[in-house]
Amino acid sequence: MFNGEKGLVIAGLIGFLLAALTGSAILIRGPIVLPEGDLGNAFSFNAAIGIFILSIAAVLPLAGFSHRKRRTVRWLFIFSSLYAYAIETIQHFRGLNPRFSREGGAVDAIAGMAFGVVSLLLVTLCVLLLIQFFKVSHRPLLILGIRYAFLSVFAANLAGVGMALLQSRFVGGAGNLIVLHGMGFHALQTLIVSGWLLEKVKGRDHLKKRLIHGGSIAWMLAILLIGVQTVLGRPVFELSLLPILAGLLVIAWLATVCAAFVLFLNAGEDPRADATKIMEKPVT
User: Fold this and answer.
1) Contact indicator for 274, 250 with CB cutoff of 8 Å
2) pLDDT tens-digit series, residues 20-42
3) What's the pLDDT score for residue 160?
4) For residues 193 and 211, is the Cβ–Cβ distance under 8 A?
């Protein structure tokens, strides 16, 4: 993981740097920049893209691309992220909505349309990676988690397309697609960790696969319920049936991660235990 992806790592860290600078500006001047700017959105966007690009840097070496294809995918991600950072940060500091500005001029409208093209490019790259990871078979437990993660990312991309079509993140009275969008992308962290832990555990293959399948399916069902709640135009964090069920499913996913961590810790103890037994065995 991360092998040979220095460029992507740097691109991801740029997002954290911009988020830190934007956060400092918020503390000094507040988040709102008239007429349309919101530095809070720039802060969260830069941090989220930074996390996403670092996650891509971690998994891209496992995708099994040829050197030429991997380099192409790498630079498309780097270009897309740098443009996204620039347009999101600059426009909000100028007091403009980077995507759907009603106050900007022709150049701002063109920049917003280019932002949409870049977003579609990211969607295409994620679909390409989803397909590619169904072709590889090395490190099967980790790859299994990555496959589920990119299925979740596909759901996040659908939410992103929905926001582009609606020209807003809001649906109905109180539905907010950004929650579904963010949760789907965070699968690149949440659904991979179990596979990474469990591949270091010897034996118990059936249990390890059940943990990865069970946790990943719970996470994706939670996304589905959140999506339904959002389409109904209702807030995700209200105390009603669908959000409560989604919360229970997230807890079920977390339980599988905890179980994987326990197995990982026990696997780390086994070699020491075996060594102790060998040392204690009487010489005959």
Assistant:
1) no
2) 999 999 999 999 999 999 999 99
3) 86
4) no
Write down the pLDDT at residue 268. 59
Low-confidence ranges of the chain (pLDDT < 50): 270-284
Which residues contact residue 153 at a Cβ distance below 8 angstroms, ignoring those fewer than 6 apart?
Answer: 126, 130, 184, 185, 187, 188
Place of tokens 């900007």: 104
Q: Are 98 and 178 in contact (CB under 8 A)?
A: no
Q: What are the tokens at 242?
A: 């669908």
Residue in this structure with the two tokens 């959105």, named with its chain if needed: 41
Encoded tokens for 126:
């994620």
Q: Which helix (H) or strand (E) holds 95?
A: none
Can you read off the two tokens belonging to residue 78? Answer: 């780097």
Per the CB < 8 A criterion, the answer to whether 108 and 95 are in contact is: no
CA distance 40 to 35: 15
Return the HEC string of 182-223: HHHHCHHHHCCHHHHHHCCCCCCHHHHHHHHHHHHHHHHHHH
- pTM of the predicted model as reported, rounded to 2 decimal places: 0.88
Sole residue written with tokens 């040979």: 4
Length of the chain: 284
C-beta separation of 17 from 68 below 8 A? no
Distance from C-alpha of 266 to C-alpha of 263, rounded to nearest angstrom: 5
Q: Which residues pair with 233 in a beta bridge?
A: none
Q: Rounded to 5 degrees, what are φ and ψ at 33?
A: -125, 110
Residue 241 CB neighbour total at 10 angstroms: 9
Helix extents (H) in the chain: 6-29, 39-59, 67-93, 106-133, 140-166, 177-185, 187-190, 193-198, 205-231, 241-280
Check the CA dihedral 229-233-238-240 and report its sign. negative
